[in-house]
Inverse folding.
């Protein structure tokens, strides 16, 4: 394959048999996931974080290069089938979460959360040329994946070349 050629990532779905006996057949989806994705400014957020990620096909699979704030991350990109036929799950391997306090709903007011292991790897969904990352948790499950962005949900759109 020439360097300028794009590779389609083929995702095949097995028929699913529902409780009422019908089969739903999803046709294989062919997506070109390679490319550059960037966040776009949003009107409803005071923090318009700038993040970009380039997904690259290598000889052994896919790799990524993610740039956020003053940090650059790169590593292996794991791709699996999504819940719907037009989406895939992504795992950016090797990125350590900025913060993970776990379940803090049962803590008393002056109590510190227990030390728990900080996860490594950021999960995302790729759907219709857009990557979605849930960046922060909530008051019961407090975490932050990318500290340079205060948005709960990060949306990156594929840059058309």
């Amino acid at each position: 394959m020439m360097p300028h050629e794009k590779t389609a990532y083929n995702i095949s779905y097995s028929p699913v048999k529902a409780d009422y006996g019908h089969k739903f057949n999803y046709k294989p989806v062919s997506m070109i996931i390679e490319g550059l994705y960037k966040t776009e400014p949003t009107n409803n957020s005071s923090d318009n974080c700038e993040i970009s990620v380039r997904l690259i096909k290598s000889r052994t699979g896919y790799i990524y290069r993610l740039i956020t704030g003053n940090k650059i991350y790169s590593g292996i990109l794991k791709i699996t089938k999504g819940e719907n036929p037009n989406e895939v799950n992504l795992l950016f391997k090797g990125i350590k979460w900025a913060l993970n306090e776990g379940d803090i709903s049962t803590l008393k007011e002056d109590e510190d959360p227990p030390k728990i292991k900080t996860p490594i790897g950021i999960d995302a969904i790729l759907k219709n040329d857009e990557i979605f990352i849930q960046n922060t948790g909530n008051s019961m499950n407090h975490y932050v994946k990318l500290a340079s962005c205060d948005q709960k949900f990060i949306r990156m759109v594929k840059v058309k070349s």
Observations:
- The chain has one domain: 9-13+29-158.
- The longest strand covers residues 71-81.
